[in-house]
Write a structure and sequence with these properties.
mainly beta
Length: about 70
C-alpha cells in the first residue's frame, strides 16, 4: 500500500513515471508497471533545496487515489 512518508524508491517498485506531458519533479504522475492505465498523482517533498533531478530519497507528501486513464503520447 502506498502512503505519504514513503520514498520515491519504494514507489518505483510498482509504479513508473508517466512518459509524456508536462510535469515537475515535485509533482508527477505515475503508472502501474502491471497495467499502464492505472495511475496516481504524487506530490513529493524534495530531499535537497533547488534540486533539479529526481532522487530515490524524495518523500511522498501526498498521493491520489488510483484512477484509470489512457496513456499520454506526445
Amino acid at each position: 500500500m502506498l502512503k505519504p512518508g514513503m520514498t520515491r524508491s519504494e514507489l518505483s517498485k510498482n509504479f513508473s513515471p508517466e512518459l509524456g506531458g508536462l510535469f515537475a519533479i515535485s509533482d508527477m504522475r505515475y503508472c502501474s508497471k502491471h497495467c499502464p492505465y492505472i495511475k496516481v498523482d504524487v506530490k513529493f517533498t524534495l530531499t535537497q533545496p533547488n534540486q533539479k533531478t529526481e532522487l530515490p530519497t524524495d518523500v511522498i507528501q501526498t498521493i491520489s487515489k488510483p484512477y484509470l486513464e489512457y496513456a499520454i503520447s506526445d
